[in-house]
Amino acid sequence: MILEHRIQTMFASLLVFAAMGCATSEPKPAQESKFYKSVAVRRCLQFEKETKVNEAQACWADLLRRLEDSPNFRTKAELSDSDVAKIRQKAGQSQQKAHKMNRELQACFNLPSRPRQQRIDCFEKYLAAHKDELKQSERYEIKNAIASTRAAEKKASGSIEATMEHAGKLLGADLHTEDGGLRVDAVHGGPMAQAQCPAQGMIVLIDDLQVTEMDVAEIISRLEACQEKPVTLTIRHGGLKEVSFHRITCSCGKQASGKRQWRILMPAEACSEEDSPELTLGIEWCYEAAAGMLHVESVCAGSPAAEAGIRPGHEYTHIGDKLILGKSLLQIRALLEQTPIQFVEKGGSLRSPQALDGKLMDKAAKSKCWQAIQDLDKGTNKTPL
Questions:
Q1: From CA 98, how far away is CA 104, in angstroms rounded?
Q2: What domains can be seen in the chain, in order of their start residue?
Q3: Assessment of whether the complete model's pTM goes beyond 0.90
C-alpha cells in the first residue's frame, strides 16, 4: 500500500510539472510576413526607391493581376492577408501617382498652339519636376516635343524655310490642310507607299497628337522630323457607313522606309447593346468613330456613372489621358477596365466631377438598367433613368 501510494504521488507530481512546463513555455512565433521577402514585391519596391513612377505602377498592377488570376501564386509566395492588402494599397497609390503625372503632361500637350512659349515652358517645368521619375525614352520624347515646338516657331517667323509641299515630298504624298485634319490627296512612292497607305484619307494624328490642335507650322515641323526619327501617322478613311484607320510609321531621308502597324475597320456609329461593358457602369452611349467621340445617350439612376456626375448629352473625347480617336471598340473596352476611370469632355474640360472607382453593377442591376433603357426607347418608361 505504501509503495502504491508513493507511485501515485510521483505520477501526480510529474503531471503538475508537465502542466507547469506547458504553461511557462514560449509561444510559437507568428509566421513572419513574406511581403518584403517576395522577389516580385522587392522588384516593385526597387522601382519606387528609384522613383520610376510608370515602371512601379506597371509592376504593382502586374503583381495584383497575378494575385487575382493565379490562386496558387499567393500560397507559393506565402503572402498573408495583410500582405495582400498592402499590395493592393501600393498598387492604388502607384496608379494615382502615374495618372497624376500623365495628366500633367497631357495638359502641356493640350495647351493652345499659340503662344508656343507657354507650351515650351510647361514641358520644361514638367521635366524639371519629374526628371528623376522619367525613363530616358520618356525624357527624350518630351525634349523632342520642345524641339519641334521651337522649330515650328522659327518656321512660322520665316527664319526657316519649310512648306507642306516639302513635307509631302519627304513622305511621298500630296498633302493639304483641311478643317478635319491633313488631307492625303495622292500617294506616289516613298515611305507612305511602302506602308501601304491608300490616298484620299485624312491624317488625324501625328505621333498620337491631334492634327486639328496644331497650326500649319507645327504640322510641317512634326512631319519633317521624319528625317531625324520615325514619325507615326494615324489616317482615317471613309465616314458614311464605315470608318477605317491606318496607323503607319515613316522614316525619311537616306534611310527612308514605311511600315503599317495596323488597320482597323468599324461602323461609323456603334451604340451600346445588352452585353456592352459600359452598361455595368450604368451608361448607354454611341461611339462616333470618325470624330472619336462617345455621346452619352442614357444614364441609369443609382449607377456608378450617375454617382460620378455623368449625364445624357455629355460628349467625351478621352478616357483618362488616352485619346479615343483612332481606337477600336475593343481598345475602348480595354480602357474601361482601368480604374479609376475619368472621362474628359470635348474641348478638354472634365465633365464627370468624380472618377469612377471601378465599382460595377451586378448582373441583376445591369439587366434592370438595360430594361429601363429599352422601355425609354419604346416610350413606355415613365420614370427618369
A1: 10
A2: 36-109 (no CATH), 164-267 (2.30.42), 270-378 (2.30.42.10)
A3: no
Is 98 in contact with 128 (CB distance < 8 Å)?
A: no
**What pLDDT, in 10s, does the model give residues 179-196?**
788 999 999 889 999 999
Contact 302, 288 (CB under 8 A): no
Per-residue pLDDT tens digits for 280-323: 999 999 999 999 999 999 999 999 999 888 889 999 998 888 89
